[in-house]
Amino acid sequence: MKKENMKEILNKAQIVSNSSILEKFLKKKTQMREKELEKHKSNSLKLSIFLGLFIWLGAGVLTKNIILSAGIALLLSLVLFLLLLQAPLAKKKAYSSKVEADLPLFLMRLATEIKIGKNFSKAINDSCKEESFASKEFKIVLNDMQKGCSFQEALQGMNERLDSANIRRTASNLSNLSIQGTKDVSGLKKLAQELLFKQRIESKEFSGKMVVYALVFIAVSAIVPAMFQSFVLIGSYFMKLSFTATQIFLISVILFPIVDLAILLMIDKKTPIFLKQ
User: Fold this and answer.
1) Are 14 and 66 contained in the same domain?
2) pLDDT per residue over 162-187, tens digit each?
3) CA dist list (Å): 189 to 122, 196, 197, 274
4) Same domain, 16 and 146
């Protein structure tokens, strides 16, 4: 009984020690992130002001009105500043989506490696042999562990780098497995199956929408330009329509291709990440 009590006391002391180390690690990460954020805000503000001055100068030359050009420059500078502030968040979200897309297959491999008896470091290392965004992130986890971080600290660092609820669920699951020391990977397999099922649903939904996207693209890229040319040709005979050769050329060669490109970009944005990789 005394030995069991001593083991429980030592385990509790170890948990408290690990939690205090984790708190210090998180505090340090938070301070570093705040410094990076302040630096990014400062650089974004400087760049916005610098470009705003050029916009003011250019708008002043075109409008011959200092007040109007100042208003235009101020508005565009504000929009640019907001876009620059959101750029890192958008980049982080896009990268997190790529990692999450690779997560199901990575978790399947990892569950198999853990099930056959390998420790977490060896299992993760062997699972990272196939190149993917998820493998790249877990390689960083291994590097953090080699630098002296615990497994929980390295996982928390991954959570800080990425913005994904499923990645946080994965990190929590792996952290619990490492603490309990169990080889029961049913939770990992269930999570991987849920992610695969979600991807199948998104793929079916996109396939249905793709039919509409294709029809719109065909109409805008082929039917609308042909109708425009017929309308200009016939309208010049029966209606008082007057298009110069330059206008028709610009509409046909510049406007319609820009619209086509916009539709293609919209389709690309709507396409699930896992279908692009």
Assistant:
1) yes
2) 888 888 988 888 888 888 776 778 88
3) 18, 10, 12, 19
4) yes
